[in-house]
What does this fold into?
Amino acid sequence: MPAPITITRIRLPLANAYLVQGECAILVDTGAPGDANRILQALRRAGVTPADLRLILLTHGHGDHVGAANELAAASGAPLALHRADDAMTRSGRNVLGALTGLEARLITPFVDKPFPPVAASLIFDGALDLTPYGVAGRVIPTPGHTPGSISLLFDSGDAIVGDLLMGGRLGGALSASRPQLHYYVQDFAQLHASMETILAAQHRRLFVGHGGPLAADDVRQWWRSGASAQVVARCVPTRA
Ligand SMILES: [Zn+2]
It folds into this structure.
């Protein structure tokens, strides 16, 4: 029997990071630039030292998730993992946002879209990634749409971390944090639609997200089927024959 999984949400000013503990510990996302100390304090509160981390995994390449990656990789010595499709963005230190999904996105963008220290991940992967060698019973699958290199973590426990595939609540999760919402930015609506269907088909019970949350999978399914799915399809660019 694999060790049960504990997911500790690390609430940061702009985004969530997560400490995931099974037989060993991994860190998922690293917040915005300047968040390293907040994350190190959260690890300490959980009784985890940086050297205990087996892996630092980035759900995608945006600056509010990779901002403190360099400091945390240096402090821990852990490999820093990122999907190849977001590697160019993190190396550039500039966000690629794609389409803005509503008025709130237009209002907040000037405040959240800042350059960040370029990050060169040490473990670049293309497809899925098994987490058992890192002491966590689960796997990573690509769930592109928000960005081309967005990934989700699916744990055998029934929980999942889906990054910015969707988000919880308004104002980055400050209000109604458990209510599913489209993220502010989508690079590819057709990919996002397929990724949402993949996640819902995986039948996990609880979805942890990059902003706000966590979300009950039943609420997400209901939200998706009762209009959000159609809204995303309406934004899909038809493919030409
Ligand atoms: Zn993002």
Q: What stands out?
A: Residues 60, 62, 146, 164 surround zinc ion (CB under 6 Å). The longest strand covers residues 175-181.
